[in-house]
Amino acid sequence: MADIFKLKTAFMTPFIRFLVKHPDLMHSRLFLKAMRVFPEKVSKTYDEKIAQNIIEYQMALLTGLNQINNKPQKILDLCTGTGFAAFMAIEHFPNASVDALDQSSEMIKIAKEKAVKNSVSRIHFNEGNAAELDYDDDIFDLVITSNAPIYLSEAVRVLKISGLILISFSFSGEAFVKAKKNISAYLVENNIMLLEIENIGKGAYILGQKLEKTQFL
């Protein structure tokens, strides 16, 4: 298992570095197809794999959530999978409601079953495409995503001015921190000011705030 993890990390780290410098790749036909197919294939064993290393998996996301001092009322979780980040968000912000989206019908089915089993009513799980959100502009206080590609222009569009965006990964943390300059520039292009980027365990989190365009002039 350790050798498999090292192999995965060895592959992902250079890929992350390339992706940070070339974010338009996420809109390519091949990438978008992979993002539709892969979640369906891993959905049935996804939670089992997370449980094998739950502390490491949640570390970056939890640390990022701890940096949010305001009290968001309306949260959007993009590429929610089986709802890992969404469930953590409502535990962290007990007065908030969460809209959680994923393209995978199987992932959403599992997430809904978990919500019913645990009597959770403040998360609304729906199928949805993170690259083409079916929401009005400026309606969420916080947008989160964990271990997923981020379609920043759409995430920012639905985020309120002064709202926060939290992006976390449980792998390749050093690659993200080393790419801080590129990440900051990409965020600024989308009206996001980088607040923090930190390497936590094997992962990292990125916290930013949406500002008016004039605030970057």
Tell me briefly what this model is.
The longest helix is centred in the N-terminal third of the chain and has 23 residues, at 29-51. By secondary structure, the chain is of the alpha/beta class. The termini are far apart.
Unreliable spans: 1-11
CATH topology, what is it called? Rossmann fold
The general outline is: globular
Terminal Cα span? 50 Å
This entry's quaternary arrangement is single chain
Which CATH class applies here? Alpha Beta
* Overall residue-averaged pLDDT value: 85
CATH superfamily, by name, is Vaccinia Virus protein VP39
Order of helices and strands: HHHEHEHEEHEHHEE
Number of strands: 7
Please identify, by name, the CATH architecture: 3-Layer(aba) Sandwich
Strand content: 15-25%
Number of domains: 1
Number of helical elements: 8
Could you give the order of strands across the largest sheet?
3-2-1-4-5-7-6
Give the C-alpha Rg: 16 Å
Main β-sheet description: 7 strands, mixed
Structural class: alpha/beta
Q: Helical content, roughly?
A: 40-55%
Task: Characterise this structure.
With 217 residues, the chain is α/β, with parallel strands linked by helices. The protein has a single domain, classed as Rossmann fold (3-Layer(aba) Sandwich), CATH 3.40.50.150. The protein has 8 helices and 7 strands, in the order H-H-H-E-H-E-H-E-E-H-E-H-H-E-E. A 7-stranded mixed β-sheet has the order 3-2-1-4-5-7-6, with helices on both faces. Strand 1, helix 4 and strand 2 form a beta-alpha-beta unit. Helix 2 packs parallel to helix 5 and helix 3 crosses helix 4. The radius of gyration is 16 Å and the shape is globular. The N and C termini lie far apart (50 Å). The relative contact order is 0.16.
